[in-house]
Write a structure and sequence with these properties.
It is built from 16 helices and 20 strands. The protein is α/β, with parallel strands linked by helices. It has 3 domains: 117 residues, Thrombin, subunit H (Beta Barrel); 289 residues, P-loop containing nucleotide triphosphate hydrolases (Rossmann fold), CATH 3.40.50.300; 132 residues, no CATH class. The strands form 3 sheets. It has an 11-stranded mixed sheet. Strands 1-2-5-4-3-7 form a 6-stranded antiparallel beta barrel. A two-stranded antiparallel sheet has the order 13-14. The protein is elongated.
């Protein structure tokens, strides 16, 4: 490859991490004139190419520019450019990541011209997903390796107002086929993409709601539509909901609750009896389990000769505790008299708080979507309905590429459980589907991506019991999901508060403006390729500008993302604009009606 004419200087110093170039020229131009003539291409984030001493070049990104002035009457300026090596450009113009050789002092440095930049981003057919345009060269498209981008987990971070939600929406629009004019471009129907969005603030429905005249289907699952029965929960999720781990007798609560759940699952699923475990996703009656625990809490053992088993107030002996599921019974009183001798059962009076907690949960109308979900015809969901739930979560009921799990109506105390339950079920589906495909010597052909919006709210650094279910499920996907066709897009305005395990598994980072110093420092530590110095621009990025680094991008780049159409409802309220308008009356009755309906008594807990 012939050196271009935009030579700006020579290598002054070279280390493993930084190459220092002194701006100078072999012609009569001064360093100042040379710098002034080319300074629009010599900014932090721009690229240089530097000879290695052979026919190849090191490609480096500018991270710092220093101006040195000498003399007073006739000042003379000299310029030093610090740049970080990121790859090699061979004699044929092919770019590769990393550099085996580094330039030594006196090697010439050149501005990387736009033609070469375009070629680097466009020449490889594997880089087939257009993300946006170089922020400093709007004619140069930034293309990513779509397979590496979506399969290797993505972290999207940025402060409020940086354009984070719009960036996520823009990416998803391009996946499913929604163009800049809010038109659905696929005339043959949906492609094979499957995306599940955990939407904490009801932002994303507006971004995927197209006109009725377009053949596009969106799957929105709010609390009133989400089919999420409690019997799909595993042991950890159930115990998180019903058991307080800090109580002195919590171990007994766990052991007896587990026993009751397993027995009740066997009772209602006799055809699966031998295969059922505590974690089996099959129907059981939580009301009957509550009865069982209440009876253990009341249990009194008859001690007359020939007894030694629980004894009811009617005098009947209980030889099979299976009857405990059906009703709450009265037992004989504790007695030391010979004719009525009886002693308290092993758990008599120990489960008072446990039973009270169970009853409180069952009576909480906000939890009906978990503890009393029913079909439209009023029937209780049973084991045979599991197939319908799977199809719903993955968008197969309405052939939807995007499924939005609207978490805005989910009570905070069960937010972690809800996220955990959906993500775990999707993981298990991907796992078993992949195993079936492998059995036929095929790969998973239905890959799924979960978008964790506002991830710091349910997968935090904190190991608090309240977040343990969701954190465990999402961390499992982060560590194992790729093997089974399940990837993550983790989105957060507070990256320093998100589980480090999850971010450590992300191979691609999209960093928008971050104003919090602690978050900036945290992100710098996470970024691969030893390019943390690029993030010096994090606090000054414009809205929609982002730093893109990772396995999927050929060059770490500052990219300008266009606005999606339609946009998510993530804009802040225009306070000052609204305050300048005339007084506006509010229909308080309507607000109160909606408020009350959110907790309206629609169904009773099942029997």
């Amino acid at each position: 490859m012939q050196s271009n004419r935009l030579q700006v200087g020579y290598v002054l110093k070279s280390t493993s991490g930084i190459i220092t170039v002194e701006v100078s020229d072999t012609t009569d131009k001064t360093a100042q004139n040379l710098f002034e003539a080319n300074k629009n291409q010599l900014r932090v984030g721009d690229y240089l190419k530097i000879e290695q001493g052979n026919r190849d070049f090191v490609v480096a990104t500018i991270v710092n520019i220093t101006g040195l002035k000498s003399g007073d009457e006739m000042p003379k300026w000299n310029f030093l450019i610090d740049c970080q090596p990121i790859g090699t450009l061979d004699d044929n113009g092919h770019f590769s990541r990393g550099s085996a050789l580094l330039p030594v002092p006196t090697e010439p440095a050149y501005i990387l011209d736009r033609i070469v930049i375009d070629r680097i981003f466009a020449e490889n057919p594997e880089y087939d997903f257009t993300m946006g345009y170089l922020s400093r060269n709007q004619s140069a498209e930034v293309r990513l390796d779509g397979n590496k981008f979506f399969a290797k987990h993505i972290a999207v971070v940025g402060s409020t107002g940086s354009g984070k939600s719009c960036t996520v929406t823009k990416l998803l629009h391009r996946i499913v086929g929604i163009d800049e004019k809010a038109k659905y471009t696929r005339s043959k129907g949906p492609n094979n993409s499957h995306i599940i969005v955990f939407d904490l603030h009801s932002e994303y429905a507006a971004a995927f709601s197209l006109g009725s005249n377009q053949s596009y289907s969106l799957n929105i699952l709010s609390v009133d539509k989400l089919k999420l029965p409690y019997w799909l929960m595993n042991s950890e999720e159930l115990e998180s909901l019903f058991i307080e781990s800090n109580e002195a007798n919590s171990h007994n609560q766990v052991s007896q609750f587990k026993r009751a759940v397993v027995l009740n699952k066997q009772r209602h699923n006799p055809n699966l009896k031998d295969a059922i475990t505590y974690d089996s996703p099959v129907y059981f009656s939580i009301r009957q389990v509550c009865n069982y625990i209440e009876n253990l809490n009341r249990e009194v053992i008859g001690r007359k000769p020939g007894e030694g088993v629980p004894k009811l107030a009617t005098g009947d002996l209980v030889h099979d505790t299976d009857i405990y599921f059906d009703n709450v019974y009265e037992f004989v009183p504790n007695s030391t008299a010979k004719d009525t001798k009886a002693t308290n059962g092993a758990f008599h009076g120990e489960f008072n708080r446990f039973v009270s907690r169970l009853e409180t949960r069952l009576a909480d109308k906000r939890l009906e979507f978990l503890l009393a979900p029913r079909a439209k015809d009023g029937r209780i969901y049973k084991t045979e309905d599991f197939l319908e739930f799977l199809r719903q979560y993955l968008g197969y009921v309405s052939r939807s590429n995007v499924t939005i799990i609207d978490l805005s109506g989910v009570p905070f105390e069960v937010l972690s459980i809800t996220v955990s339950l959906v993500s775990r079920i999707v993981f298990d589906f991907c796992f078993h589907y992949t195993k079936l495909r492998h059995k036929d010597k095929e790969e998973n052909d239905v890959p799924v991506m979960i978008v964790c919006e506002e991830a710091h709210n349910y997968v935090p650094q904190s190991d608090s019991v309240a977040y343990r279910p969701s954190r465990k499920s999402i961390e499992r996907i982060a560590k194992e999901g790729r093997k089974y066709g399940l990837s993550l897009m983790v989105v957060s305005q507070r990256p320093s508060e998100v589980s480090e395990t999850i971010f450590a598994q992300c191979s691609n980072f999209i960093a928008l403006r971050l104003t919090n110093v602690h978050d900036q420092t945290y992100v710098r530590k996470l970024l691969p390729d030893n390019l943390s110095s690029v993030t010096d621009s994090l606090p000054t990025l414009a809205v929609g500008e982002c730093i893109v680094i990772g396995d999927a991008v050929v060059l770490p780049s500052i990219v300008q993302m266009g606005k999606p159409n339609p946009e998510p409802k993530s804009r802040s309220v225009a306070f000052h604009t609204e305050w300048q308008k005339d007084w506006r009356d509010v229909e308080f009755a309507e607000v109160l009606r909606r408020w009350q309906e959110q907790n309206d008594d629609k169904t009773e807990p099942e029997e």
